[in-house]
Amino acid sequence: MSVILGIETSCDECSASVLHHEGERLNPLSVVTFSQIELHQPFGGVVPEVASRNHLEQIEPVIFEALDRAKVEIADLDAIAVTNRPGLIGALLVGVTAAKAMAYARHKPLVPVHHLEGHLMSAFLQSEKHDPKRIQFPAVFLMVSGGHTHLHHIESAPEGWSPTLLRDSLIGRSIDDAAGEAFDKTAKILGYPYPGGRWIDEASKGGDPKAFELPRGLKQKDSFDFSFSGLKTAVLLLAKRLEQEKTLDAAIPDLCASIQEAILDPLIQKTLLLARQKKAKSIVVVGGVAANSRLRARLAAESPVPVIVPDLRYCTDNAAMIAAAGAIRFSQGQGLAPSGFLKLNAFAIAEH
Ligand code: KG4
Ligand code: ZN
């Protein structure tokens, strides 16, 4: 049994969570997240310096609120877990420095966590709506967030994961924009506020997904990689043409439905193909784009095996998934003592 504090500041969410880990159960006792979306909205995307400065203001109240809500004292914590890669470097440094200071002052082990391991781990968080036991192995994990689009082949529950699981299980990824980024950039072209994914989802309802022909990147059957960068250029040119013809407003539902389909087709085709190849017993979708209503409806209809989406509050960036990844690593003896963690660094890129 252990009680872990998780801290997440890799992008525009400042989040802390207290999690109870016992046996196979990863049970969040509290999750407190300060979302910076409104701060970045006027700029149409995340401004790294604005993000870092706001994390600096929010980190302490967010951590103490998470402890309060869980009714847990710092003394009760067994370890502190913090995202140290990948992400915006200034933002990451705020979380890492806060975690180090707290762990050092209160003699707690520190567990550095890879943000994407956290996203995979979000599927194993217990909640009223989601029982992780539904996940049968081998499983295919589609990780679709604002920053990453990954396909993973996962063969066991987290207790059996090796320290290199994230790398070893990776089958395909986007070679340019992430799926969420494709939603956000095309939504921006159409004038929607950041982040635009949910607006495209909304506006697509009632639209014809075949109305406009838009490119699908990396269509070849033997590749599990994705490419979404061609889509935004195509949408830009199409939107300009429709505007000149004064038909853009009327075309919005059809256009949004067509954009959405151009993003979802490769995600769904490759996920189902991998699931068939690996004889997967379940498909799990994690990351913010898992909120997309058509992605979930299509996968559920087209997949021969159960499709599982964790509680949506754990799909977008949050510290419960970081605490969970930290709890597993801590249970495997990977907590760092001050002699190891004072030199701990943060890294912007995923390969670290
Ligand atoms: O996982 P997340 O919170 O951020 C990263 O870790 O990057 O995901 C945010 C992404 C954004 O790109 C947002 O537009 C997208 O998830 N998103 C959606 C929907 N809701 C959020 N995309 C499509 N349809 C939605 N309903
Ligand atoms: Zn994320």
What characteristics describe this protein?
352 residues, alpha/beta, Nucleotidyltransferase, domain 5, 2 domains, 10 strands, globular, binds 5'-O-[(R)-(carboxyoxy)(hydroxy)phosphoryl]adenosine, binds zinc ion
CATH-level-4 superfamily name of the largest domain = ATPase, nucleotide binding domain
Please tally the β strands and state the result.
10
SS class: alpha/beta
Please mark out the parts with pLDDT under 50 across 5 or more consecutive residues, or reply none: none
CATH architecture of the largest domain: 2-Layer Sandwich
Domain module count: 2
Mean pLDDT: 95
User: Overall 3D geometry?
Assistant: globular
Q: What is the class of the largest domain in the CATH system?
A: Alpha Beta
H/E element order: EEEHHEHEHEEHEHHHHEHEHH
What's the main sheet like? Answer: 5 strands, mixed
Strand order of the largest sheet: 3-2-1-4-5
Distance between termini? 29 Å
In terms of DSSP E residues, the strand content is 15-25%
Task: Tell me the helix content.
Answer: 40-55%
CATH topology term of the largest domain: Nucleotidyltransferase, domain 5
CA radius of gyration is: 20 Å
